[in-house]
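Dear colleague,

Following up on yesterday's call, I've attached the two folding results inline so they're easy to grep. Please treat them as preliminary; we haven't cross-checked anything against experimental data yet. The first protein's sequence and structure tokens come first.
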Amino acid sequence: MNDKTGIPFQGHLVDEFNNGFVIYSKHSDNNTPVFGPDVDFTCLVASGLQYLKNKNLSVFIDTQELDMEVLSSIGFNFVSESEQADYIINKSRDAWVSFSPSGELFEPAPRGLQTNPTFMEEIQRAWENELRSVSQGAYVSREQYIRSLDQRINLMAQREDHATIWPMNFHYDQEQIIPLEPTGKIISWTKTTAAGSPSEFAFRSPILGGLTTALVEFEKGTIGTFLIVDDHQNPVSINDEVELVIRRIYAQDGWIRYGLKAIPLKG
């Protein structure tokens, strides 16, 4: 039996066992984990891979319901046969994922924030509507998105003329690349009204009561713009410390764009 349960990690929870761990949503319905408003299996698996830390491991997973472009960008070696894997990843029917060398399926201990089922149903319908929508603003093609995915997910910055640049431009030497830590502090922020959000977020923003965007300063000097995770409803403040995690950003033309969002580390 495990003796470490409910460990907070990237906005989710982790229960550790002798032979692996289970990562699951902090939201629940009758003690069953359910996905938060901008989380799905891709987000949970991504966080589980980062919980492993050792990127030299080979992993096996059924790729259905997953964006493998996002997961492959994290740096692990995905293999096609479970016998070849150091870790086997098992998705459940609910919002939890098991990681184990043996492929053992773990279940999380009953806990979590009780959700409002009506709210979650509205959010799910909003995502479905987004998937059917077409761009009415600054369109980003799948090719453009994939081309910059690795540097955005991994916070790969460029050192040039005594300045740090993120996201990078596409003309750089490998010696110029420096990794940023996925933490920083808010130096400015704004919250859009439900009606004032960009068209990409028009279905979800009214349900969420608007969207909060923050300018985040990294320790190495550069600044990035990030949405606050959708399930953080408390006000943010200047100098709040944040952690950057993989979440759904928006959907369009039948597929979901993933990227980094900020989780305030207090409240």
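Below is the second protein, in the same order (sequence, then structure):
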Amino acid sequence: MMRRPAGHGGLAIGAALVGLVASVALVSLVWTPWPPLALDIAHKLQGPSAAHWFGTDHFGRDTLSMVMTGAQNALAVGLAAVGIGVAAGVPLGLAAAVRRGAVEDLVMRATDLTFAFPAVLTAVLIAALAGPGGINAVIAVGIFNIAVFARIARGAALQVTAQAFIRAAAAIGKGPWRIAAEHVLPNIAGILIVQATVQFAVAILAEAGLSYLGLGVQPPNPSWGRMLNEAQTFMFIAPGQAVFPGLAIALAVLGLNLLGDGLRDLLDPRLRVWRMG
């Protein structure tokens, strides 16, 4: 008899999809079938072939090479945006849970204000002031992630600080920040990891949406969202130009969501469902 957590299949599939997208991005750093920015007008809007597996776009650029290079931008924006959220949001959430009072009220009202301006609207405001670009997209999504992680960290930390071992740590003379670092943060790390995978998926979708609107990664750098924008004009002539970048976005987001669900089941004992196998 063996016992194993149900949902590990989803975790494995999610990890495989995320690994595939990451591998494609890494490979594209050193190799692509064709130079992703090379123009070949004579062979524009071709369908899949032995020379161009995903066909070519309206400038004759190899679609597979552009999808591979676009994975770099998607993952870079996702990593940076999640990193900003974790680096700033988690300390704010811990401060709100540990200090309470005015600090908690200030952090929570700031997150409420942030949620009133979604990432796309924030990107529009930033683009109006500083112009569109990948960095501005990262800032916009990162600001939204700060509020998300601050709320998640505060809620999880409040549950931990109510436990008896936290009161015992305070009784032996440990200060609030030492307790937060040594006892609270390790106990909420699993929740934060799961949330990071979810926000990574949200960041990839946000980057694609912003690039589709012309506010994200700018030409000539390939972006999945901008590829979708350019492909809509030729939807009935070369449908593959929309299918392949759309499929890349779907696989990346699906993989991260499955990975997050699997990690949640694995890291939270209360959500483990055991079965005999």
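For the second protein, one point worth flagging: The chain has one domain: 15-21+62-272.

Best wishes,
A.L.
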